[in-house]
């Protein structure tokens, strides 16, 4: 299995206690200590997560974070620091930071936080908003969504999903139609189109790179999903993104 790709912004690399024992050892790392480069790389390099590494979360670091502008997008952004303070957490969260790593967590816990960020970013929020009734009506739909998020970007087929839930395909189909108004296949297709739209909006990746990042076997497969969900091509959807958010386009 290939390593996850991580973009690391690390102004003081020698002070980072996790740099050698986790970041370099466990992941394919792209490192910079220049803020402008970090933002440029974040938009142009297909990575699974980004980490801002501060030695300590003090007032100066908060000011640096403000200079990075909003970091919300399809890629989860974490901070790594010696300690934290409430003001740092508040401002970091406003800027799009989704997870916080501190020096006393231990290697396994840090790895767990990073993988959780990669698996969950964006998907849970979208599903909570878009398919809220599904959570109210059936615990199986909750479990289905957790399986989708956990396995992302590997797309489970209907048989795999039913087997994991220990129910038959017909029952899964009925639950999805009841809870979400969509078949399981349509639900999965909508999720992948949403993630592709987010990448179009927040990165400079072309359609081929986005298709590869989302584990499509070929670019035409992603185009078919767009036509089935939105009735237009990925390129036409890009034009819609100049005036609408991914969520608005899907609604």
Describe the structure in your own words.
It is globular, with a radius of gyration of 19 Å. The mean pLDDT is 82. Helix content is 59%, strand content 10%. The chain has helices spanning 19-26, 35-44, 59-67, 86-94, 107-120, 123-130, 132-137, 139-151, 158-165, 169-180, 184-202, 207-213, 219-230, 234-240, 246-250, and strands at 5-9, 28-32, 49-53, 77-81, 97-102. The chain contains 15 helices and 5 strands. A 5-stranded parallel sheet has the order 2-1-3-4-5, with helices on both faces. It has 2 domains: 5-119, Response regulator (Rossmann fold, 3-Layer(aba) Sandwich), CATH 3.40.50; 123-250, Arc Repressor Mutant, subunit A. It is an alpha/beta fold and 251 residues long.
User: What is the CATH-assigned architecture of the largest domain?
Assistant: Orthogonal Bundle
Percentage beta strand: 5-15%
Number of domains: 2
CATH topology of the largest domain: Arc Repressor Mutant, subunit A
Structural class: alpha/beta
Number of strands: 5
C-alpha termini separation: 36 Å
Overall morphology: globular
H/E element order: EHEHEHEHEHHHHHHHHHHH
- Average pLDDT metric: 82
**Fraction of helical residues:** 55-70%
Instruction: Determine the number of helices (DSSP H or I, runs of at least 4 residues).
Output: 15
Biggest sheet strand order reads 2-1-3-4-5
- Rg (CA only): 19 Å
Biggest sheet character = 5 strands, parallel
Spans of at least 5 consecutive residues whose pLDDT stays below 50 are none
CATH fourth-tier homologous superfamily of the largest domain? Homeodomain-like
Oligomeric state of this protein? single chain
CATH top level class name of the largest domain: Mainly Alpha
């Amino acid at each position: 299995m290939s390593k996850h790709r991580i973009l690391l912004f690390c102004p003081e690399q020698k002070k980072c206690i996790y740099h050698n024992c986790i970041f370099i050892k466990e992941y394919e790392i792209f490192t910079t200590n220049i803020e402008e480069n970090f933002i440029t790389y974040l938009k142009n390099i297909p990575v699974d997560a980004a980490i801002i590494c501060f030695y300590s979360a003090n007032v100066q670091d908060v000011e640096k974070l403000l200079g990075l502008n909003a970091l919300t997008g399809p890629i989860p952004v974490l901070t790594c620091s010696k300690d934290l303070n409430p003001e740092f957490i508040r401002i970091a969260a406003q800027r799009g930071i989704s997870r916080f790593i501190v020096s006393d967590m231990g290697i396994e816990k840090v790895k767990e936080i990073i993988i959780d960020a990669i698996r969950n970013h964006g998907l849970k929020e979208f599903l909570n908003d878009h398919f809220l009734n599904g959570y109210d009506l059936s615990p199986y739909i909750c479990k289905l969504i957790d399986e989708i998020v956990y396995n992302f970007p590997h797309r489970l087929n209907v048989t795999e999903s039913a087997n994991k839930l220990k129910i038959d395909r017909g029952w899964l189909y009925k639950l999805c139609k009841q809870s979400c108004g969509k078949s399981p296949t349509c639900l999965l297709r909508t999720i992948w189109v949403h993630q592709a739209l987010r990448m179009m909006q927040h990165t400079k990746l072309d359609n081929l790179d986005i298709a590869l990042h989302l584990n499509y076997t070929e670019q035409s497969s992603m185009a078919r999903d767009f036509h089935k969900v939105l009735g237009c091509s990925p390129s036409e959807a890009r034009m819609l993104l100049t005036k609408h958010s991914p969520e608005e386009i899907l609604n």
